[in-house]
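Extended Data, panel c. Modelled sequence:
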Amino acid sequence: MRKKSKHNKKRNTAFLFEILTRELTKSIFNEDTKRKNKIISIIKEHFKKGSLLNKDLESYRSICETENFKENVAEKLLQEIKAANRILDPQGLFVAQSRLIDDMNKGLSKSAFSTFVPNYKSLATLAQIFDNDTPTKTRVLLEDAVVKQMTFDKKNQEDENLLTIDNLTYQTFIEKFNRKYGQELREEQNNLLINYIASFSDNGIQLKLFLNEEVTRLRREIKKSLNMDEIKNDQDMVVKTNKTLELIEGFKEAPLDEKLISKILKVQNLVKEIQN
């Protein structure tokens, strides 16, 4: 059988893909090249174009990425996607998922399956809709909820609240920073704030991508500074620099809030001063 009536997250293709992308982000952040390459290899192998897993994943994506549609269009789209998903070879998909799970167990670890996925509930709902064993009444109720989500104008609702939040957040940070350091924001600091403000509307996706690169850059520059004569010949400076590196390492476990942004702003300032 393809799935049991009770939802099994390991048999949810979209959930498995979410785990891989999140683990990939972690490996990039941690500069773990070996793990990063392994994950990329798994994704390329199992989700290549035309594969059953890729087709199954597209069913989830086509619905999850749809919003602000007219109700009749959303209903038709859902039925078309559901029909396309059901003609996929159930046994072949089960085997493909099993191979993927096996590679993830070997290449990552079983603990990876405990990774927090924010949209897990939505993915589980879609899995039940695609499952032939789901009772008709349950499926109809779930489809009704999904259609409402597909017709919801998320952007307009956010825009109504975001404009005030954006300006207030941005101005608050600028005022705090200027009061403390008595200087204008640098370009990289301005980019950080812009991405932080944007995180209110996209669940932090863009901010996480920005931080992957920015924190890696900051860590690299701080490490390089240990080779500077002004620092390596001063034991006190060496200690402070290593403490800064420890602070940066703690960023990956910290929540994406104002406190973290303030710390990164300070490290950005420090790096610029070292470069100058």
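Confidence is low (pLDDT under 50) at residues 1-5, 161-165. This feature is highlighted in the accompanying rendering.
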